[in-house]
Task: inverse folding
DNA sequence: GATAAACAGGATAATCATTATCCTGTTTAT
DNA sequence: ATAAACAGGATAATGATTATCCTGTTTATC
């Protein structure tokens, strides 16, 4: 069991996009290369982020991606949700259900616990945003330089 | 991304074993059948639980499995750990590491957050044990009957 | 002792999810 | 019109999980 690699890559992709001057975009291929991901696949990951309204895509020549929300509005959980979807950690396969048909009202004890655990995990992931997490990173000159060299418009 | 099915199955397997009278065992095949798992595969899952000292295996004719700890000492997290191992939810693929070689002392901000999230998840899973979770289940007569019919010794 | 029923554990196959590639279509700056 | 970019469907490669098989060891019973 492992969270998809695309999650970490997405965090950094969004991080790069957060260093972008207004009205500029970064082409998907540049991002993929910088992150070291396969471009054709990472385009699909970028689309997931775009479907979740975290980033915006600009088609056409001089097109690319840019943030749709400000870095302080993008929680790490939003990225997790965009990539992994809901109930990502656990869902019941109803093993006990097969063993003991339980009365409708009775909640399943294990499912309850697992849900509480997942809620707790999610709460932590909601507690930080791209901007709260990467204030330090943004001081990195190399990265900002790379962004400046690769942006379009 | 999904926690292995074997985790939920293990919880119920241990639950069954907790209904066993002292000095008796349940054969692995009986457990597998009741849970609806492939016997050959589930034997390996039972071994993981046994490797983690949650259950004990008795070889030979009239052999089988029984609990090694009391139900109140078996936390749901112990079962999770036995099946999924450590760092099960997330580990960094060092994407940022490639992007910005960071000074040794500086902890990685994303890894830190993910660790805090996992710790929080684990804390919830440590908060309940087999006995705290399944007091209700143990009142189910059908299950106790099944155990009585399938136990050995 | 021989036999049967159970676990141990290695090797291997089947299945399924993730990752990667390819191709056709649409958008837009030049 | 052309080129460079995204959209999205189809499909292949890879890797992890699940399942099977087989050989060996333990132990109760005959
Ligand atoms: S009791 Fe809950 S966790 Fe257990 S099998 Fe049913 S639904 Fe799943
Ligand atoms: S900074 Fe941390 S999370 Fe990011 S790539 Fe490095 S080790 Fe991984």
Result:
């Amino acid at each position: 069991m492992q969270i998809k690699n695309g999650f970490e890559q997405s965090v950094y992709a969004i991080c790069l996009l957060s260093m972008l001057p207004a009205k500029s975009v970064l082409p998907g291929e540049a991002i993929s290369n910088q992150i070291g991901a396969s471009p054709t696949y990472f385009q699909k990951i970028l689309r997931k982020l775009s479907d979740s309204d975290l980033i915006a895509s600009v088609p056409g020549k001089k097109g690319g991606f840019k943030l749709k929300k400000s870095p302080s509005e993008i929680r790490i959980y939003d990225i997790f949700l965009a990539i992994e979807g809901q109930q990502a950690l656990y869902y019941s396969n109803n093993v006990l259900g097969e063993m003991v048909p339980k009365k409708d009202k009775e909640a399943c004890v294990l499912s309850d616990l697992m849900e509480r655990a997942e809620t707790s995990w999610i709460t932590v992931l909601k507690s930080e945003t791209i901007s709260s997490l990467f204030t330090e990173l943004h001081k990195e000159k190399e990265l900002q330089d790379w962004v400046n060299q690769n942006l379009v418009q």
Q: What stands out?
A: Chain B touches chain A through 48 residues (CB under 8 Å). Helices of chain B lie at 5-17, 28-35, 39-51, 76-84, 95-99, 109-126, 130-133, 141-150. The mean pLDDT of chain B is 89.
